[in-house]
Design a protein that fits this description.
The protein has 220 residues and is of the alpha/beta class. 45% of the residues lie in helices and 21% in strands. The protein has a single domain, classed as Rossmann fold (3-Layer(aba) Sandwich). The protein is built from eight helices and ten strands. The model has no long low-confidence stretch (mean pLDDT 93).
C-alpha cells in the first residue's frame, strides 16, 4: 500500500468509528473557545482492534521509511502513549513517554522510562493541531539529551502555523493522514456534500476568522 492509499484508509477508519466528526452547520467548541466544524478524538482508535492494528502497522512502516535510525519510541501523553507502546513493540524498540509537565512529586520526571544520552528518538502523537503541545514534548526530550529524529502523528489539520513551528524547531514530521485526505475521503464516501466540502476547505485557511464569522452570523 502506497502512502496516499494508506492516508485515505486511515481517514476512512477515523470517519467510520467517529474518531473524527464533521459538522459545518453546527460546529463544535474547542477548549480554546474557537468554533470548529471538525472534532477529533483519535483515542477512540484503541477501542477497535482492526483500526488499532492498521494504525500501528502504518506507524511502523512510516518510521522504517522515514526514520530508519530510530532507537527509541516516545509517546506524548496522553494520546500518544498507548499507540506509541504498540508501535515500539512492532519495531522491537524501547518505549518511553513524555508528560505534559514534570511531576510535582517523587523524582519530578517529565520523561518516563529509560533514555540514554544521544539516543535517536521518534516521537508519536495522536493529533497535531497548532503544534505547540507536540513541540513541548520534543523540547523536553531534547533537554533530556535525546537526539530527535522526528515526529509521526495519526492526523494533522495542516495549519500553516504548525508547519512554521516545526520548521523553526528543525523537527521533521510525518502524519498517517491529514485534513485534505479526510475531505477527499469524506466527499468520495458521501459523508459530506460539495457545499459542505467548500465550507470545510474554507475553515482550514483561517480557523479563527471562520469561527468569528460563524459566531457573528448566529447573533444576527
Amino acid at each position: 500500500m502506497n502512502q496516499q492509499d494508506r492516508a485515505l484508509k486511515v481517514a476512512e477508519f477515523l470517519l467510520q468509528i467517529e474518531a473524527i466528526k464533521l459538522n459545518p452547520e453546527n460546529p463544535f467548541t474547542w477548549a480554546s473557545g474557537l468554533r470548529s466544524p471538525i472534532y477529533c478524538d483519535n483515542r477512540k482508535t484503541l477501542s477497535y482492534p482492526e483500526v488499532r492494528a492498521f494504525i500501528r502497522d502504518a506507524f511502523a512502516a512510516t518510521i522504517r521509511e522515514s526514520f530508519p535510525k530510530a532507537e527509541v519510541i516516545a509517546g506524548v501523553a496522553t494520546g500518544g502513549v498507548a499507540i506509541g507502546a504498540l508501535v515500539a513493540e512492532a519495531l522491537n524498540l524501547p518505549f518511553i513517554y513524555v508528560r505534559s509537565e514534570a511531576k510535582k512529586h517523587g523524582l519530578g520526571n517529565q520523561v518516563e522510562g529509560v533514555l540514554h544520552a544521544n539516543q535517536r528518538v521518534v516521537v508519536i502523537e495522536d493529533l497535531i493541531s497548532t503544534g505547540s503541545s507536540s513541540l513541548k514534548a520534543v523540547e523536553a526530550l531534547s533537554e533530556a539529551n535525546a537526539t530527535i529524529e522526528g515526529m509521526v502523528a495519526i492526523f494533522t489539520y495542516g495549519f500553516p502555523k504548525a508547519s512554521e513551528r516545526f520548521a523553526e524547531a528543525s523537527c521533521a514530521v510525518q502524519t498517517l493522514s491529514n485534513y485534505d485526505f479526510l475531505l477527499q475521503q469524506a466527499s468520495a464516501s458521501g459523508y459530506i456534500s460539495s457545499v459542505q466540502q467548500e465550507t470545510l476547505s474554507h475553515w482550514k485557511s483561517n480557523p479563527e476568522a471562520w469561527s468569528e464569522q460563524f459566531t457573528a452570523s448566529q447573533t444576527h
